[in-house]
Amino acid sequence: MIILKTPAEIERMKTASQIVADCHRHLAQLIAPGITTIEINEFVKKHITRLGGKQFTNGYNGFEYETCASVNDVIAHGFPSRQPLQEGDVLKIDIVAEYDGWLGDSAWCYAVGQVSPEAEQLMRVTRECLYKGIEQAVAGNRLGDVTSVIQQHAESHGYGVVRDLLGHGIGRDLHEQPSFAHIGLSGKGQRLKEGMVFTIEPMINEGTYRMTIDEDGWTARTADGKLSAQYEHTIAITADGPIILTEQ
User: Fold this and answer.
1) Which residues, at least 6 apart from 42, have a Cβ–Cβ distance to it below 8 Å?
2) What is the pLDDT of residues 167-189, one digit of tens each?
3) Which amino acids are annotated as binding site, given as ranges?
4) Residue ranges for the binding site for a divalent metal cation?
5) Cα gap 3→179, rounded to integer Å
6) What is the mean pLDDT of the chain?
7) pLDDT band at 26 (very low <50, low <70, confident <90, very high)
8) What gap in Å lies between CA 176 and CA 236, rounded to an integer?
9) Residues sharing a CB contact under 8 Å with residue 76, sequence separation 6 or more, in sequence order
10) Per residue in 83-117, is it b (16+ CB within 10 Å) or e — as a string?
């Protein structure tokens, strides 16, 4: 069942979402060669608290960290580590924060120092996929209108769109309905309604869309070892169009 949110509830979600956005604003200045993802995790943990929020992911289904930190071929759900980041790494940081019982969720992709032209293009196209999807997230459209433009744009550059990790509704729970892959056909799928709040979070691989899961049960990697990028926003459907609650 899809849980529609009132304008007042969306405003409360925006508070949680802006805590996440502020973390990302700071990370953009912090991330550089030599820093470790465990140091990034500790900063986010403390910053969420400073802003009056609560971390959400540590303890969620057994996950043990306040962020997901995914480097290079890791698509998502990577564990923060003490391994220093290297010049040219592609880093994805996914953050969820809670405020007054409501959640905000956003992942962002960061170039560590100077990345290769190939990595830079992958990141640019993935970011474009996110915003092309958001443009279609208007009341009356269908989820397929959102996901089809993402798939078309990524595949036009020869990239693979991850199928096995999903966008999702969000509110008081992290994973609400609808759940959806970032592929599909225009005009198909769930009709979008005012009050829907969900993530759009395309994970775009340099090569195949296929993935594997490490023995830890969490870390998702590209099956061919090539790079992956991801950008994610939490958005709300309103009469005036989509609102990006996690806008930086």
Assistant:
1) none
2) 999 999 999 999 999 999 999 99
3) 77, 94, 105, 168, 175, 201, 232
4) 94, 105, 168, 201, 232
5) 13
6) 98
7) very high
8) 14
9) 68, 70, 92, 94, 107, 165, 203, 220, 230
10) eebeeebbbbbbbbbbbeebbbbbbbbbbbeebee
Distance between CA atoms of 163 and 150, rounded to whole angstroms? 12
What is the three-class DSSP state of 123? helix
In terms of Cα–Cα distance, which of 246, 214, 227 is closest to 112? 227
Rounded to two decimals, what is the model's pTM?
0.97
**What pLDDT sits at residue 213?**
98
Determine the Cα–Cα distance for residues 152 and 205; give it in Å rounded to an integer.
14
| Cβ contacts of 188-191, under 8 Å, gap ≥ 24 | 188/142, 188/143, 188/144, 189/142, 189/143, 189/144, 189/147, 190/2, 190/142, 190/143, 191/140, 191/141, 191/142
| pLDDT of the residue at 168 | 98
Residues making up the binding site for substrate:
77, 175
Q: Tokens 């709040």 label which residue?
A: 197
